[in-house]
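FIELD: query
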Amino acid sequence: MKKSTEKAAAAGPAGRQPELTAYQRALRDRLLAAPVVRAPEPWRPVLEPCVPVGGLLGIGFATRPGSGHDLVMVVSNDGHGLFDAVTGEKIARDRDPEPEDSTPDATADLSCPGLGPVAGTRVHIAGLFGGGLHTTAAGGWSLDVVSPAWPHDRVLLSRGGTPFTDACRERWWHIFHACYSELRAVGFSPSGQTLAVATSSDLSLWTRRAADGHGGGADA
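FIELD: result
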């Protein structure tokens, strides 16, 4: 009992949080001051501004046979959908998947059956039930999610620098602010050509690949 009392006293008054350091205050202020901006070249928005998806639970990536385009599979309360991540085309829809396949949490690897051109395969889904997407891509690109004004998450894209060390916003960009719904998943496709941000209400995509299937190489 004595040890517990001593530990409580060392921690300070109940409920009191430790004060932020000067570095932490400066970082928080830097993040709060950063406006939402367009992603830099070579990234371009695919679904501008976004595609509404009510009750979105998670997303996953696949590759379209033939064109090699990234595909984004969306899992929501209203079923499954598949988008071409270069053109933005919705290429498949399943409004009534089998109950055992409707959400990824029914499987050990958090996957759902593919549809349309990737039917017969399984797609790993990241979102409400767990899992994750790539946070780095070739060319020095990386993603961070920060919450200086929790619970509103902000998505930061960077290249060659980070908001944690660079006061000037020349090598990092605040590209998305989830101030109206919950963030579900953020990340790059395995190819590194697509950047996706999914919330509980919508999907936003960026690509660095030309719509004709040429250009926007891995090191762009």
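FIELD: remark
The longest strand covers residues 141-149.
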